[in-house]
UniProtKB/TrEMBL annotation, chain A:
One example GO MF annotation: L-phenylalanine transmembrane transporter activity
Entry keywords, A to Z: ATP-binding, Nucleotide-binding, Transport
A Pfam family hit: ABC_tran
ABC transporter domain location: 8-252
Record PANTHER family: AMINO ACID ABC TRANSPORTER ATP-BINDING PROTEIN, CONSERVED COMPONENT OF ABC TRANSPORTER FOR NATURAL AMINO ACIDS-RELATED
Organism of origin: Devosia sediminis
Cited SUPFAM superfamilies: P-loop containing nucleoside triphosphate hydrolases (SSF52540)
GO terms under cellular component: plasma membrane
GO BP terms: D-alanine transmembrane transport; L-alanine transport; L-isoleucine import across plasma membrane; L-valine import across plasma membrane
Keyword field contains Transport: yes
Record-given protein name: ABC transporter ATP-binding protein
Automatic annotation (TrEMBL), chain C:
Source species taxonomy: Bacteria, Pseudomonadati, Pseudomonadota, Alphaproteobacteria, Hyphomicrobiales
Molecular function GO terms recorded: transmembrane transporter activity
InterPro entries linked to this entry: ABC_transp_permease, BCAA_transport_permease
Subcellular location: Cell membrane
One example of a Gene Ontology biological process annotation: amino acid transport
Annotated membrane topology: Multi-pass membrane protein
UniProt superkingdom: Bacteria
Sequence similarity: Belongs to the binding-protein-dependent transport system permease family. LivHM subfamily.
Cellular compartments per GO CC: plasma membrane
Name of the molecule in the record: Branched-chain amino acid ABC transporter permease
Main location, first listed in the record: membrane
Transmembrane domains' residue ranges: 16-36, 43-65, 102-123, 190-216, 237-258, 270-297, 309-329
Keyword Metal-binding: no
Length: 254, 379, 343
């Protein structure tokens, strides 16, 4: 494997919560433009791994490198500014704001950086960002809901909106924590289509997913996590055939 | 740019607000509140509340220490009157600058924490300021007596241009004494200006960032924003508003006392904001007006007036009602305020503006066109 | 020099004890109900005024005018007859003399009722509301309580005499084998300290050794799990609120001889107690107690003239300064758990 196009490298990461070894000796390499799925039973440490990547949690040891820059020790907003966006397992949105504003806010971060004192300009004059947000909402099929308050959206719509909030930043690396959980079959399919569409734009993605249908239709690579360890790693076909995986995961819970 | 400078609704709101404020001496006269002294306080506390709302209403950070900035503004203004000139403008400028610096330092420290810890930190700083103003800082604050203007203040700028005063020194604007209605219009100008800026801030991208900090600070950080400078800017801006209000109070009544910095004074501005409607533009101003109005009216009521009011009842009943109601007026008006406050927080957390909205919605549903036009401008 | 330091230490104890008692209740309420109670100081104040009321009743008198005799200034002589003594004889006199400790017996049920009524009537509706709103509603309640007291008892402090037998000072120095009369300490303050130690120990024992206490402690650690076990935690939390009110009330009663109560006593102590809770660590009972005493003693040292000579005004701000430093350096407080209320 050509090491040169590895864009994300999680190197020897350990994370302990008191006595719990939530991540043990994780070594993960994600290549540019690929979709890398992480699967594993509940409590395996998948979300924790994403938390370590985006700087929400500091690893007990080891480090995360993104495109030559060491992420460990940086603030979450700095990590985002390097081009990493994340959809959370439970939607993290601005519940009291409108859908449109929810999607506009990340665009401001992308355009204006971590802090700008733009308080005398009117929001109405930001037509560029508004249009961009409307396009984004159209892409995820939510334009007709743009004036709704985000809190009143259905669970599935909240996730889709959160996806739009990430996509509008055109991140180089998109982290998705169970993006289809809680969605109807129909919504799941729309989301998969959407994710395939972005795939063709060459965005690198790490996706955590329980739905094998989603995983095998999207992933270029799969890592299997169980009890904080990566127990298997490879292409979908390799992983599918791996007996260890079948025992720990596929056989166990499905 | 001109088309997007301000939306039509914003412009209407601003113009409406300006007219309501400037016409206050007229429309408040029937309510017994059309005199300058009270009107000035309406303006001053309106500014204080509008500014407080920029912090609490937009970012959700509940400060219990804003009276400290108000007090700093007052002291600075009085010192400017004493040392430099009786003209109000330099006093205002200095007051805003000094309170901004003060807010910058305190805000920088307090904003390292959020939630209840932030509230306690602001409270701690305000109480420190208050206690110091009463004790070791007496050379600056004149302790319990309060800082006053005297005949033999140096006033170097006034002296330099050979201006002298006869009698008790009074703050001026370009030589014109700022008492009575002149004082009111001076304060009203600042309230309108303060409102305008608050409106701009609320409607700007910056304002939206503040609201999203209130909504979900974690998301803000994972979205690439450094939230602390945003919150700090809001803190400093609201501190400047408080300083401005404090300075205006010193202009209309050039005596600054430490009690202006006490935490109960901070509590009062919280009350005004809540009562009117947190996060709304007009709400805090209305809250400030109502509290100052009732403070004025209720605290002036006494048993004689009450007896006259209840005189239509049979004697025993009247006496009883006088005894009961007297507990809620005069010195007891704080009791009324406390009860009102509890009731608002329990039943109408959105304050008066929320009430107005609900009524408006109910009216709209029943579809009476006449009532519709009446309630809409309030939004 | 040692004597001086020891004396300051003792001087800090009674104030520290009051802080500790109030902070204990605050923490109990915060830890169990998750409510930030700005009305807790008002409960302390209400307790103090229970003592005032009890004494008022105990010292009620009948006044009869004896027209046959004249007072020294020429008016008809008023004969005052204390009612309680008239009814109960010597025991009545003892009761009047010991009115403050006696008030405790009456304060306990009253404060329990006040606490339960408050929790059932208002506080319980705020469990799920934001902390800011909890602060606001309890702040409003505190204003109401203090204004009601003001309108009944007036704005001035009402001194409460301590029992005559307990007025002297204890010679602690002699007790510890030092010279006599070097370290003396007012007896009532000593009593206050012992009293608070007993109450604190009682609360801890209650939490430690009863099933009720166990459930409450488990609830403090992890409310959801305990709720899931099907234990009716709400009922217990109501009682906890009542208990916190009782502790605050008793602390207020016993404090009256040291500081004549007035209507803003509660607010004065509230701000400091909150600071104490934060310094101790939100939600930590031992933290609250330790911080209460620590800050009381620190305050006592800061008001020494030698210290004030070096840092003027330090006595005015020491508590707040400590709080600020603690909050900035160690946000969870001295003994607090990580992440409590930090969202
Ligand atoms: N902040 C935390 N503190 C303590 N334990 C945690 C924390 N976050 C996750 N855990 C624990 O780490 C383990 C892995 O959790 P998680 O990463 O959420 O699993 P999943 O693979 O289902 O996403 C779980 O046992 C969880 O309880
Ligand atoms: Mg997970």
């Amino acid at each position: 494997m050509a090491n040169s196009n590895v864009v994300l490298h999680v190197a020897d990461v350990h994370k302990r919560f008191g006595g719990l070894h939530a991540l043990a000796d994780i070594d993960l390499q994600v290549e540019e433009g690929q979709t890398h799925a992480i699967i594993g039973p509940n409590g395996a440490g998948k979300s924790t791994l994403l938390n370590v990547i985006i700087g929400k949690l500091a690893p007990t040891s080891g480090q995360v490198v993104f495109d030559g820059a060491i992420l460990t020790g940086r603030k979450p907003y700095q990590i985002n500014q390097l081009g990493i966006a994340r959809v959370f397992q439970t939607p993290e949105i601005f519940a009291d704001l409108s859908v449109l504003h929810n999607v506009m806010i990340p665009a401001f971060a992308k355009r204006d950086g971590t802090f700008t004192l733009n308080m005398l300009r009117s929001l109405d004059s930001e037509t560029g960002i508004r249009q961009e947000a409307e396009h984004m909402l159209e892409d995820v099929g939510m334009l007709n809901r743009k004036d709704m308050q985000a809190a009143s959206l259905s669970r599935g719509d909240k996730r889709r909106m959160e996806l739009a909030m990430c996509l509008i930043q055109h991140p180089r690396l998109l982290l998705l924590d169970e993006p289809t959980a809680g969605m109807s079959r129909h919504d799941t399919n729309t989301t998969i289509e959407l994710l395939k569409k972005i795939k063709s734009r060459g965005m690198t993605k790490v996706i955590i997913e329980h739905d094998m249908h989603v995983v095998f239709s999207l992933a270029d690579k799969i890592s299997v996590l169980a009890q904080g360890r990566i127990i298997a790693d490879g292409t979908p076909d390799e992983v599918r055939g791996n007996p260890k995986v079948q025992e720990a995961y596929l056989g166990g819970t499905h | 740019m001109p088309t997007t400078f301000m939306s039509r609704n914003d412009l209407l709101l601003f113009l409406g607000f300006t007219i309501v404020v400037l016409a206050m001496p007229i429309w408040l006269a029937p309510f017994g509140a059309g005199y300058p002294d009270l009107l000035q306080r309406f303006m001053i506390y309106g500014i204080f509340a509008v500014g407080f709302n920029i912090l609490f209403g937009l970012t959700g950070y509940l400060s219990f220490g804003h009276a400290a900035f108000f007090g700093v503004g007052s002291y600075t203004a009085v010192w400017s009157f004493k040392l430099l000139t009786l003209d109000a403008i330099p006093a205002m400028v200095f007051a805003v600058i000094v309170s901004a610096l003060f807010a910058l330092v305190i805000g920088f420290l307090c904003l390292r924490r959020s939630g209840i810890y932030f509230s306690i930190l602001t409270l701690a700083f305000a109480q420190m300021s208050y206690n110091l103003a009463y004790s070791v800082l007496t050379p600056i604050t004149n302790g319990e007596t309060g800082l006053q203007l005297t005949l033999n203040d140096p006033r170097v700028l006034d002296a330099a241009i050979g201006q002298t005063f006869v009698g008790q020194p009074v703050p001026t604007l370009f030589g014109q004494q700022l008492s009575g209605y002149a004082g009111f219009y001076f304060c009203a100008g600042f309230l309108i200006l303060a409102f305008f800026f608050a409106q701009r801030i609320t409607g700007s991208p910056f304002g939206m960032m503040l609201k999203s900090i209130k909504s979900n600070q974690t998301r803000m950080q994972f979205t690439g924003f450094n939230t602390r400078p945003y919150a700090l800017s809001a803190f400093v801006i609201s501190g400047m508003y408080a300083g401005l209000a404090g300075a205006l109070l010193a202009v209309t009544d050039p005596l600054a006392g430490a009690e202006r910095m006490q935490w109960t004074a901070s509590g009062e501005v919280v009350l005004m904001t809540i009562l009117g409607g947190v996060g709304t533009l007009v709400g805090p101003v209305i809250g400030a007006w109502i509290i100052k109005y009732f403070e004025n009216i209720l605290s002036a009521l006494n048993d004689n007036i009450l007896a006259r009011f209840w005189s239509f009842l049979p004697d025993g009943m009247a006496d009883f009602m006088v005894t009961v109601t007297s507990k809620f007026v005069g010195d007891g008006w704080h009791l009324t305020l406390g009860l009102l406050f509890v009731i608002i927080v329990i039943f109408l957390p959105g304050g008066i503006m929320e009430g107005v909205r609900r009524i408006a919605a109910a009216v709209r549903r029943s579809g009476t066109p006449a009532a519709k036009t009446q309630t809409q401008p309030a939004e | 020099m040692f004597e001086v330091i020891f004396l300051q230490f003792l001087n800090g104890l009674d104030k520290g004890a009051a802080y500790a008692l109030i902070a204990l209740g605050l923490t109990l309420v915060f830890g169990t109900l998750g409510v930030v109670n700005f009305a807790h100081g008002a409960l302390f104040m209400l307790g103090a005024f229970c003592a005032v009321t009890v004494r008022m009743f105990l010292t009620m008198e009948t006044v009869t005018i004896d027209p046959t005799k004249l007072s020294p200034w020429g008016s008809p002589l008023e004969v005052r007859e204390p009612l309680v003594q008239a009814w109960l004889g010597d025991f009545g006199a003892v009761l009047v003399n010991y009115s403050v400790p006696f008030s405790i017996l009456i304060t306990i049920p009253i404060m329990l009722l006040v606490g339960i009524a408050l929790e059932r009537g208002i506080i319980k509706h705020f469990y799920k509301r934001p902390h800011a709103e909890q602060i606001l509603v309890t702040f409003g309640l505190a204003i109401v309580a203090q204004e009601v007291i003001k309108s009944i008892f007036g704005p001035n402090p009402i001194p409460q005499p301590m029992p005559t037998d307990l007025r002297g000072a204890a010679d602690i120095g002699a007790f510890l084998g030092m010279q006599a009369n070097v370290i003396t300490y007012p007896l009532w303050r000593l009593i206050y300290f012992v009293f608070s130690a007993v109450v604190i120990a009682g609360v801890f024992a209650f939490l430690q050794f009863t099933t009720f206490g166990m459930v409450v402690r488990a609830g403090m650690a992890d409310r959801e799990t305990v709720g899931l076990l099907g234990i009716n935690i709400d009922r217990r939390f109501t009682v906890m609120f009542g208990l916190a009110a009782v502790v605050a009330g008793m602390a207020g009663v016993m404090y009256t001889p040291l500081l004549p109560p007035n209507y803003h006593l509660g607010m004065d102590f509230l701000v400091l107690s909150f600071v104490v809770v934060v310094v101790g660590g939100m939600g930590s009972l031992p933290g609250a107690v330790a911080a209460g005493f620590l800050l009381g003693i620190l305050q006592s040292f800061a008001s020494m003239t030698q210290v004030k000579a070096i840092v003027p005004g330090i006595d005015q701000i020491i508590i707040y300064l400590v709080a600020v430093v603690i909050l900035l350096v160690r946000p969870r407080g001295l003994l607090g758990r990580r992440g409590v209320m930090e969202s």
